[in-house]
Amino acid sequence: MLFRLLLFFFFLSFFAKAVYPQPNDSLRVSENLEELHSPHKASMMSLILPGLGQVYNRKYWKVPIIYAGMGASLYFAFEERTLFREFKDAYIKRVDDDPLTQDLKYANYSNQNMLSLIDYHRRNRDLFFILTGVVYALNIVDAAVDAHLFYFDVSDDLSVNLRPALMQNPLGMGFSPAFTLQLNLRKAPLSTYSYH
Description:
The protein is α+β, with helices and mostly antiparallel strands. Helix content is about 60%, strand content about 15%.
């Protein structure tokens, strides 16, 4: 199942590059930036080895989180698989009508309890394996998004100005008091909003 998931993401990333439209001349600058730091390369690196795309994007702090998520979900998946097999083998020994095979460890459980525990651990095993695949897929998506935003300019000047103002009445009859909210994300104001 994991091999099929890996194969699916490989073909998805391969064909996704072929589907993108060709950029026109107005996008030459952004195209050159993406050639310097490629989202496709980051995705492929994370596809081959989880966390490698984050290293490529210089987001080193995310690598332990990825491996902790995948490691924990795989650990619990294998624990649930072990319990599933243990209860299943015990139930088979109990109902096989062979007096030489006996289930002594779980003798206090009824047959219905054993079947419920088998279903419970099988469901948990499957969910933890799916969770491992989700963490793996998120690792690839995160690498691609970080690579797209690698050259995104974020200034240290994040400020908000709230000033009193006078706004013309919508009916054209006089002025009414208002507040002007100015949000600065860069050196120059990005946007201004007025509230009455």
